[in-house]
Amino acid sequence: MPIRRGALSFARFRLDGSIPKDTRKWLVKALEARAFEGIDPKGDDDRASGFVSLERPEVAEFPSGELFRGMHALFGWRVEKLRIPGQLIRTQLSEWSQAFEQKNGRAPGRREKTEQKDTIRRALRSKTEPGVKVFDVSIDFTAKELAVWATTRSIVEEVTEALASTLALKLIPKVPAALVDADTLDRLAPTTELFGDELATLKKKEVA
Questions:
Q1: pLDDT per residue over 20-77, tens digit each?
Q2: Which of 3, 36, 81, 100 is the most exposed place for a label (fewest CB within 10 A)?
Q3: Which residues contact 103 (CB under 8 A, 6 or more apart)?
Q4: Cα–Cα distance, 82 to 46 (Å, whole number)
């Protein structure tokens, strides 16, 4: 797990808002509201995501003994994706079409092929195991800081949006652009003194 290996690939956010005194009950309720639910083999969704225990990522339960380490909370964001190779569907559809033509003396129509393609896909879906990824998440309640141990922007946004809504807090990215006001950033722009005559010449050309 990234947290235990000491990986550096994480995004940090400041918790902006009031935190109840009963932190444990408050957090558990929030995580249960977006607890992970697996992909339904008979459904249409090919992706599922939600919070799980970091100790047991196959479980969407959050006992205090697993969730808290002092004033730190550790849990996971589980993502499942179901991918059925398109080539496999095409191969089976082609075999079915040949058998259909031999039996009926004609090639199957577009509607018949579409219906059979859906039948094949559903049959393969029920036999295919989804790919699983679990991303570590930690909250330091002393520093009021959230860390999402992921490098994919979409995952970070998914986790923070889920927590912001269930915890009723605003999560502010802990990056320079978010911590410094616009006027200060403007004053930090490169100056003529920094780059010397070369920058001054460039500015004169822009004016001209």
A1: 889 999 999 999 999 999 998 788 889 999 999 998 999 999 998 889 988 899 999 9
A2: 81
A3: none
A4: 5
Which three-class secondary structure state does DSSP give residue 189? coil
134, 77 contact by CB (below 8 A): yes
What are phi and psi for residue 129, nearest 5 degrees? -85, 130
The amino acid sitting at 189 is: A
- 175: tokens are 């990056």
Confidence of residue 121 (pLDDT cuts 50, 70, 90): confident
Written as one letter, the residue type at 194 is L
Q: How far apart are CA 38 and CA 182, in angstroms?
A: 44
Phi, psi for residue 81 in degrees, rounded to 5: -130, 135
CA distance 25 to 73: 12
Residue position matching structure tokens 């919070």: 51
Q: Which of 79, 70, 25 is nearest to 51 (CA)?
A: 79
